Batch of 2 targets.
Target 1
Amino acid sequence: MRSPVRAVAEADVAGGGERGPASEANAAAETDGVRVKPGRHREATLYKALAKAGARDGRTLEQLRADARRAYDALELPVWRRSGFWTTNLQSLDLDALHSGPPPAPGEVPAVVSRTLPDRPRAGRIVQSGSGVVHVELDAAARERGVILCSLEEAFAEHGELVARWFSRRLTIDRHKLEAANAAFWSGGAFLHVPPEAVIEDPFEIVYAIGHPGLAQYGRTLVVGGQTSEFRVHEYDLAEDFEGQALHAGAFELYLDDGARCRLAQLQDWGSGEVFDASTRIVEVGRDAYCHWLPSLLGGHLVRQHLELAVSQPGGDMAFRGLFFTEGREHLDAFAVDLHETGPSGGDVHWRGAATGESRASFEGLIQIDPGAQQTHTYLQIHAMMLSPRARVDAIPSVLVSADDVSASHGGTVGELDDAAIFYMQSRGLDRPTAVRVIVEGFFEPLISQLQDEPLEELVRAKVARKLAAAHEDIETYAVSR
Amino acid sequence: MADLQIRDLHVGIEDHEILRGVDLDISRGEIHALMGPNGSGKSTLASTLMGHPAYEVTQGSIVFQGEDITEADPHERAKAGLFLAFQYPVAIPGVSVANFLRMAMNAKREEPIGVKEFRTQLAHAVELLDVERSFTSRHLNDGFSGGEKKRAEILQLAMLQPDVAVLDETDSGLDIDALRTVAEGVQRLHDEHGLGVLIITHYQRILHYVRPDFVHIMLDGRIVLEGGVELVERLEREGYDQIRREFGASEAGALAGEGGG
């Protein structure tokens, strides 16, 4: 076996990055007309795919919890370092002061949920508030079709065999303290099983909400799509605007059996409280299956997301989209993996992000093609926009290829607001804040429109517009300072 | 009183004076041509009229329909009824031509334009500019050819219906068919709606399709010669060099004259 070659091209504009040989990132930048500094190549050591490191390995749930508990006790709060770029440090989290809280009463849905979720046709909805599920509904037609939607705790009790086949197949339990905490202490949770051949048009909504400060929420989701099933999943991660700390340490697994097709969207907005989010999400695409995955990461005090989309069988295909928008003093660290374990397979990763205030957004996108995954074709692009002089965005596309009959490329841009475009729109009668909004919305629009779901698209657009309005003064200051 | 009055306008960019005392009156229903060689200050005048932040007015005034707009924000000038067709239109990715037009029209109105009214007007404009209907669902200027960009400018002009439009080298980079379409569109907006037009151009070509009532020749930041359409013919015969010999101060002389004025 050839040793894997890892090439990292850096698109780092805010500072720090040295100039180096021209890369594809550079070429992409030229066509888009946005400035980008070409990077140098370096070894990446910390941001790794989970690959097939799943923890289950024949262990029962009780054994997993016990092992995770031991890891939890032994581990310190994590610090992720991307040498030369950013450090994501969770040590400011006062974990001892947090608690899972008493189990919430059924029906006690936090106001933020009804305030945020669009009123629209849906196939089902499950809401977890704090440590417990407070609301489950399933459309009668979906139920008749054999769909299961319930809390994961209930699923272990009622559908033990089915759950056991998939639970923690790809998720680990001991990479860091908060992952261990999730595996040890998770409660409530969501389980969705769409049986083979079922085609469900309206989305299943899975909601995690934090209504109060002081809560530690260990969310756990398992979704299984049977052969040639087709469905949509919309996950919402929401918190009330409060003062004080809270934690969401989530673990999400979605498995698509042969020929299944899923559109997965996640909307995360933890509000203005000091909410920490350290979560791992993994999607496995089976033979000839397809997943379109689009997380919208729109807020959180300190967020670390490990997002992994793995094509595990020949013919699997995926589109991995994502957008992020940080403000204030938020810190986002998103690691997205496009993993190809076999070929032929396809991949298409496209992320866009913006930052205002003193926020810090860091994105690393990794294409990993394992040995033998021949005839894999994939592309990764990341575009970022800085809207404030004190904001910082880093975007690192990287490629780790261990097969020789593949194509894998990447590109990226990091830019600022275009004054010429602003003047152009002003000359048509739009005032400056509107012109800025149009540019930023236009920047995100290629992804938002791919949600292909009008109510969700409108919600994401509204969230982007609200963030821009909040940052208006900051954006003006930046314009004057340049 | 003319709709647009430019008086003794001096404009500089980063301490370098480009316009050195421009006087110009333009009213609705009039077509003016402003001609001059490269670097004479034509485009600076266009940008300044629209309020481009890079250009600083150091002396003089711009009055539009009785309001002094010398220091007004660009969007206020647009709302007042001034329009600039850009020499180099800027791409707005992610925003369709139709959506952008709707936003721009609503910016000028109290009530948002009705869907039906908008569609009717858009259909008219699309026909006027001889573009495909699908043109309006493309992202504004994003990946447009040179000709498409200029058509999109005039399409916006037709929809926004300003009182006075400045066309900054709209003819440059156009093939003859596109030029004719664009020019005829402008002529019709003038004929049917009484649009006042300032055509800024380096060449005479566009003036074969849009007949100006007034022609102004700019040299070194000043209008040195004014007249009717016969000036265009004279330019065609003699070129700018002859006019420069007659009116153009040398660079040194111009600076000396500036100091004395």
Note: Chain A is about 25% helix and 40% strand.
Target 2
Amino acid sequence: MILIVTFLVIAMLVAAVSAYFFHDLLSAVIASCMVSLIASALFLFLHAPDVAMAEASIGAALVTAVFVIAIRRTKRYEE
Amino acid sequence: MRKIIGIILLIIIAWGIIISLQKIPFGTSRAKVADYYINNGKEETGAANIVTSIVVSYRSFDTLGEVTILFLAAIGLGAVLATIKRKEERKTEKASLILFTGCRFLFPPILLFGAYIFIHGHLTPGGGFQGGAIIASAFVLMYLGCHDKKKINETGSIISESLGGLVFVVIGLIGLAVGAHYFLNNFLPKGEFNTLLSAGIIPIIYIAIGFKVGAELSKIIDLLMEES
């Protein structure tokens, strides 16, 4: 249990930091989506399924879709 | 250089949050209000899910405010995007057969799951907001997978959105007129605990919220996709 949570937290940290460093904005958006997804799993481990559901559907699905649409409209690569 | 400054600022903020969180005694004893909700929530609201009994019964006025905020956000986005002229049709690659069929196959089960989440909001985890967001994500899938074929029925989305808000406010006003005379008073019978038809007005309000949130979020996605 504690091992799974530790692994998830480390993966979340890696995803968050890599979202900051990516020059390809699409990859950055996917990395931030991964942060939301892992956060939702952690909420589930903390016995908060309501929050986990909201985080998974809004944070991981809808926000990612909005960012992807915004990238399609602007530029994909950062200078 | 900018990135290094950003990382240093982030570390300082994280340190501040850690320092301030250490002062809060987590998990020692419950506050008085939380204690009251946990002990009396079941009898007073009839909802098996305590989170729902707080969100829709004790704090339902706040929920009305949240729904209004979402409504205003959708209106603001529509107003901003309405001023931008539509560009000429961009050429989009046609989705492959597997993607197209997969999207069309997954769309109804996701809708059904969202409806299940908000209809059973008073029994199982989840509720109107979560169910509405899941329904909107089904529309996202449809738009990304085969958006050249399908489009949201505009009248249907407007009708379900307005009807959801109207049902919420009208039920609140009925509660004001009947019984204990306060806004969103739970005036319907509580029914048998832990069955679908229980908890008075809570399932009705959650169904209304589910329709409203689902229509609003999918309308936002629709507006954004249309402009891009």
Note: The two ends of chain B are 34 Å apart (CA to CA).
